[in-house]
Design brief:
This protein is an all-alpha fold. About 85% of the residues lie in helices and about 0% in strands. Helix 1 packs antiparallel against helix 2 and helix 1 packs across helix 3. The longest helix is centred in the first third of the chain and has 28 residues.
């Protein structure tokens, strides 16, 4: 069983990572929007690999290397919430 304080740190840090992931993903797509499709695909694969590596390092640091499904859900909620905020801000 994992301690409650570690779980809370992991959820909060995963949520913040989801927000930062969405921000950096949107910026990356805007910068490479006019590039060729092959370059976009390669860049996206490299970007996702780097972000996945950083997330697993974060899990190692905050969650003692234990991966839980709620941490992934927290990342997805952060990503989705950032995209909603961007859509509302653009209006």
């Amino acid at each position: 069983m994992i301690a409650l304080s570690i779980q809370i740190k992991l959820i909060i840090s995963s949520f913040i990572f989801g927000l930062l992931f969405a921000l950096s993903f949107n910026l990356c797509n805007k910068l490479l929007y006019d590039c060729k499709t092959v370059i976009n695909i390669i860049d996206t694969i490299i970007f996702l690999g780097i972000m996945s590596f950083l997330y697993f390092i974060m899990i190692e640091y905050f969650g003692d290397g234990i991966f839980h499904i709620y941490s992934l859900l927290s990342v997805l909620v952060g990503f989705y919430l950032f995209n909603i905020i961007v859509k509302l801000y653009k209006k």
